């Protein structure tokens, strides 16, 4: 039981709770009458299962507990952000009062001490919220370590710093199962790979963001990463890798579909924009199909959203000046109804398949 | 068995994280040591070339001291009445020769759309050299030109307006002589060897110092039609390091009270550049009035 991930443990707990509810309904309808002894043994078995799951993965055993968990996640994120800001301003306020040697010692010690605290708290607290909070602070300390040490020695800024941020972020994210740190690490990786790609293409690394094509390669790498390295043991990690990659890829395509000057291609802007518009439509439609086939609701939703964005920006280009506004919005509304009909059809097909 | 394997993997991750933190810091500190193990250039700068940052907003809470390098490029356009005292901008535009321009390999400009090409390249800086001397001469010539004007005969300017111009010309000259920066970016290329050769060909005055530093440089045009006259120009966007941290133990004298809010303090600073072209402040002396 202890080898289950938090997602698997929560699913198992939900399964037990659903069984109990259905059992009660069937008994009420007079369709199921288990002997008292059997019913008691099943109840005891399920109680033990739930207790084990609760101890191992701190699963939610009721709807209200689930709502509170979401609240705790939000509060721990806010708390971590506030503590990180507090730490930053603490350094800022007293930084100039230390000698260089003391500054270096503080900078190196800060991420290590906060890492130690995070690991110590993890042992004491089964929920993991406090440990995750400490891990986020350790990550901020690491970022400050690199930034400030470069700052006090006037080191030439380098995109390699983002690789260092990313690697430490990944280590903490995997060690303490912190999804927020995984997000931070992936974003740092995007920046690092994007800037390196930009440097190879001959531009100055700080301006990597001016060329959205820099981010295609990292988006593809991180989308496919869960295929090569299974993330079953880590709750929600696969979704984070894929969703961040999808968002980055489609935002880049969307920008280029409307601003060809940001591309490396030496074609006229109208051709570049047309190319990326087609790419956007095809890729978002493929993502919807992929999401449907893999039963991945998030990817399907992302595909839908970006397909609609590409469609509506095109409508805007074609019709905003051409049609009166009531007609423009009527057309938008009609396309939405058409999309609704298609999705309803797909849903029915899926449900028929599910029942049979 | 699985649980044991997971625990071992977790311990490895922790060890790896600790090792990584130590290794990266060791790498950065080793780089700093290598840079500072040899002083390649020494510059004696003052508040003319180094600025204390303005202390507003969040900066008010910053207890550290930083100095920003303040440099310019040689002005090439002739001084006219229209320029007045304001011709001296913090100019970033630099005219360079064909050979140095070719080193950037800037693509042919497009007829449609705007393209900005930015490069990690090298800039040749000249401190207290011919470019600064030329600037002072131009300020003197400008002053002579203004003082030679007669209100009724030579120009349409009224007496009052001319008096104003003369005052401005005096200020321009005084600024050139005592307050404006003497640090000029005089050349740029992507190949450092080209700048070394160019530096050797340049005429040096008695106190001239040269230094070649990494910089972010942009093509002078972004649109063929609009920027054709700027095809042989580049823009020096920034030096790789143009903000210098001042360690507490190198500061001598006291920053005059209230000066951090209005950074017009007088000071002398000795700036060293090391093997890796990274600078450090060797000493900073605040003065009560004028350091000279």
Regions with little confidence, pLDDT below 50 for 5+ residues of chain B: 84-89
Element order of chain A: H for helix, E for strand:
HHHHHHHHHHHH
Query: What's the average pLDDT of chain A?
Result: 86
- Structural class of chain A comes to mainly alpha
Q: Approximately how much helix is present in the residues of chain B?
A: 25-40%
The pLDDT mean of chain B sits at: 82
* Count of alpha/pi helices of chain B: 6
**Helical content of chain A, roughly?**
over 70%
Distance between the termini of chain A: 32 Å
Oligomer: heterodimer
Tell me what portion of residues of chain A adopts beta-strand conformation.
Answer: under 5%
Q: Which word captures the global form of chain B?
A: globular
Largest interface, with counts of residues having CB < 8 Å to the other chain, equals: A-B, 52 and 52 residues
Class derived from helix and strand content of chain B:
alpha+beta
Query: What is the terminal separation of chain B in angstroms?
Result: 77 Å
Radius of gyration computed on alpha carbons of chain A: 26 Å
Instruction: Give start-end ranges of low-pLDDT stretches of chain A.
Output: none
Number of strands of chain B: 12
**Count of DSSP E strands of chain A?**
0
What would you call the shape of chain A?
flat
Which characteristics define this entry?
heterodimer, A: 356 residues, mainly alpha, 12 helices, flat, B: 292 residues, alpha+beta, 4-stranded mixed β-sheet, 6 helices, 12 strands, 33% helix
Model description:
The complex is a heterodimer of chains A (about 350) and B (about 290). With about 350 residues, chain A is mainly α. Chain A contains twelve helices and no strands. Chain B has about 290 residues and is of the alpha+beta class. Chain B contains six helices and twelve strands. In chain B, the strands form three sheets. Chain B has a five-stranded antiparallel β-sheet with strand order 4-8-7-5-6. Chain B has a four-stranded mixed β-sheet with strand order 1-11-12-10, with no helix packed on it. The longest helix of chain B is centred in the first third of the chain and has 35 residues. Chain B is globular. The termini of chain B are far apart. About 0% of the residues of chain B have low confidence. Chains A and B meet through helix 3, helix 4, helix 5 and helix 6 of A and helix 1, strand 5 and strand 9 of B.
